[in-house]
Amino acid sequence: MRLLLIGAPGAGKGTQAELLADRFNLTHISSGDLLRQHVRDQTSIGQRIKAYVDAGDLVPDAVVMDMLRKPVVAAAESGGYVLDGFPRTVDQAKAAFEVAHALGVEVQAAVHLDVPDAELIRRLVVRGRGSDDTEEVIAHRLQVYREMTIPLLEYYAGREWMVTVDGTRSPGQVHEDIVARLRKLAAFEVS
Ligand code: AP5
Ligand code: MG
Questions:
Q1: Of 11, 45, 144, 173, which is most buried with the most CB atoms under 10 A?
Q2: Ligand 1 centroid to 38 CA: how many Å?
Q3: Is residue 28 situated within a structural domain?
């Protein structure tokens, strides 16, 4: 199974990716987690991208693409992946499709977690993950989401494998809804 999770900051991408990975034995790949790990380890990528992550700006596409290529292909070859936080622009989606299609590892379903801004802000302020969970940076991340990722949802709209779920309910309820929606897609035989 090869899945994408798309949603605003705080929508629950990481939470739902974990639940799906456990349930279906998938590898959870989070672009944000990998980028933050590079920053913590002070790798050359980490030094290049720290300012973007701290400010809530998107990291350059080429950095993200290069970072994800190997783990995504490896995961696809060993049971599948659930990708959290990538793609988040139309350009990333197009570039990723070219690479994945050539290798036969393209995505089978994309799940959009829909949560209103007030709830997103509430969750992120409570969580306080680090430099990008201050109120000012959260507001900027939401702005970046509207500018860069809403167009991606529009680009994917109408595709049979694109599903939108109400992400405001409990994590367990959201998870069951996602699984129910996946069951209806032709690409899966979900048990
Ligand atoms: P990223 O790490 O992807 O952050 P984000 O999109 O801002 O999202 P979060 O991780 O904050 O939220 P989430 O949706 O995973 O929600 P979570 O499950 O944690 O990206 C960070 C940065 O990296 C970007 O700003 C950018 O700089 C860079 N980056 C990453 N990908 C990139 C890309 N493709 N291109 C360029 N740059 C990129 O939940 C949030 C909180 O809510 C938690 O406390 C959780 O417990 C709680 N919660 C979850 N679900 C529920 C629920 N149902 N009810 C109540 N609470 C809930
Ligand atoms: Mg996350």
A1: 11
A2: 17
A3: yes
